[in-house]
Write a structure and sequence with these properties.
The structure holds two protein chains of two kinds. Chain A is mostly helical. A two-stranded antiparallel ribbon of chain A has the order 1-2. Chain A contains 14 helices and two strands. Helices cover about 65% and strands about 0% of the residues of chain A. Chain B is an alpha+beta fold. Chain B is about 35% helix and about 40% strand. In chain B, strands 1-2-4-3 form a four-stranded mixed β-sheet, covered by helices on one side. In chain B, about 50% of the residues are buried. The chains are: A mainly alpha, B alpha+beta. The interface between A and B is large, with 37 and 35 residues.
């Protein structure tokens, strides 16, 4: 049995994900939003009519990511139906993470893609993201845990991929109750099959490489393991080079695609994303991969992202190119307080004896 | 003396944290985990601490044996 994987596999994964992002951007995804889990969940939420003020389009990339992870986990015999580790707490954390992401306007992968496009607002936001992860690490070191997950029936492990197949059918069939943006970011996308194929590749690669935009910083701090940071660097370099070649690189703060210049809120939004994701054990992309691999706790977390996206747009919390909103700033304070309460309530000073010889 | 650590059902990075708490001074550790990802993470950490790692089991049930090299 293979016990570890090589550094190169992580770097190659980063290169592939970077190339896929470049392809998606070339074929129509919005600027510096070639691939973004938070934005695409928001779009899908809109496509289903669960939010009515933001972009609306069922993003095939997400369906591909889930199905790619599902298929490869079956092939590699890693698909395992698991769940029961504080599911409702994870749902709430998922909501909070999405509120933070939509204040910043992007999840961690879009943060990297925005930096690769020269968007310095994202570079500033990175400070908050790392700060959030470090806050989460403090609680992990003090014994934070959402407790154990347990074996679940087979249906529990395949339900989420099946739902994604149904979403694909709805997208292709396009019945009247499914929404499609006619202008703005929701209207900008490649052909369905290109997005789906891209998602399948990313899903498979991310499942094999364990790609996670939180674990790199977390493990570097906690275990002096810097591997995953190489993956981020690979994505950044590939997309940066492509942007320089195609003339899309534009260094600065102002007039960046789908971004605002409120530096404090870019930091705070990503702080919430980093903190919440660390408590969840992985970034939004990782949650999608785990959900595809049979983890129903992650599937519930994704539903939390959907609920977060719905309230963010329906209640006017989400930022736009014009900046943050008063409701969004209040929601941030509430969400940070909620995440701290969850962190404190689930942290128990553990002794070395705990878990030993149980 | 062999120490047994049950990290079944715990998500990353908790299994590695449990291991970290007992690894100093230990000669042999039996670590129970339930995912290949945990096997990889714990193996990397144990090897960095000078332990030889062997793994038995598969699909949701792994028994890792860590011996001080």
């Amino acid at each position: 049995m293979k016990k570890t994987r090589s550094k190169w596999s992580v770097i190659v994964a980063g290169i592939i994900v970077g190339l896929v992002a470049v392809v998606l951007g070339h074929f129509g995804n919005p600027g510096n939003m070639q691939l973004c889990i938070a934005c695409f969940i928001r779009d899908t939420t809109g496509g289903l009519g669960l939010q009515t003020t933001g972009p609306q389009y069922i993003r095939p990339e997400l369906i591909g990511i889930v199905l790619g992870a599902f298929i490869i986990s079956l092939i590699k015999k890693e698909h395992a139906p698991k769940g029961g580790s504080s599911p409702f707490t994870r749902f709430i954390l998922g909501m909070c993470v999405m509120v933070g992401a939509l204040i910043f306007l992007g999840c961690p992968i879009r943060m990297i893609l925005r930096i690769a496009g020269g968007d310095l607002n994202a570079a500033v936001g990175l400070i908050g993201f790392v700060g959030g992860i470090l806050t989460g690490v403090i609680f992990l070191n003090k014994g934070f845990s959402l407790k154990r997950s347990y074996d679940q029936p087979s249906l529990e492990g395949v339900a989420f991929p099946v739902v994604n197949v149904l979403l694909l059918i709805l997208l292709i069939a396009a019945p009247v109750f499914i929404f499609f943006s006619e202008k703005g970011p929701g209207s900008m996308h490649p052909a369905i099959w290109i997005s789906l194929a891209a998602g399948l590749v990313v899903g498979a690669v991310a499942q094999r490489s364990r790609l996670c935009f939180v674990s790199g910083t977390r493990d570097a701090v906690m275990f002096k393991n810097f591997w995953m940071l190489l993956c981020y660097a690979a994505i950044l370099v590939v997309v940066l080079v492509a942007n320089l070649i195609t003339g899309k690189f534009k260094l600065g703060f102002a007039d960046q695609p789908i971004a605002h210049t409120e530096w404090l809120w870019n930091i705070l939004g990503l702080y919430l994303v980093g903190f919440g994701s660390t408590l969840l054990g992985g970034c939004p992309m990782r949650q999608m991969i785990l959900a595809g691999s049979g983890n129903s706790d992650s599937a519930v977390t994704v539903l939390g992202f959907v609920a977060g996206a719905a309230v963010s747009h329906n209640f006017g919390l989400a930022s736009s190119a014009a900046g943050t909103t008063p409701n969004g700033r209040i929601a941030f304070v509430i969400c940070v307080a909620v995440v701290f309460i969850i962190a404190i309530c689930n942290t128990k000073k553990s002794s070395a004896a705990q878990g030993v010889a149980e | 003396m062999k120490i047994t650590v049950d990290a079944n059902g715990l998500s990353c990075p908790e299994p590695v944290l449990k291991l970290k708490k007992v690894i100093n001074g230990a000669e042999e550790i039996e670590l129970l985990v339930d995912s290949q990802v945990c096997v990889e993470n714990c193996t990397r950490f144990a090897e960095s601490k000078g332990f030889a790692v062997s793994v038995e089991g598969g699909r949701g049930q792994y028994v890792m044996t860590l011996k001080k090299a």
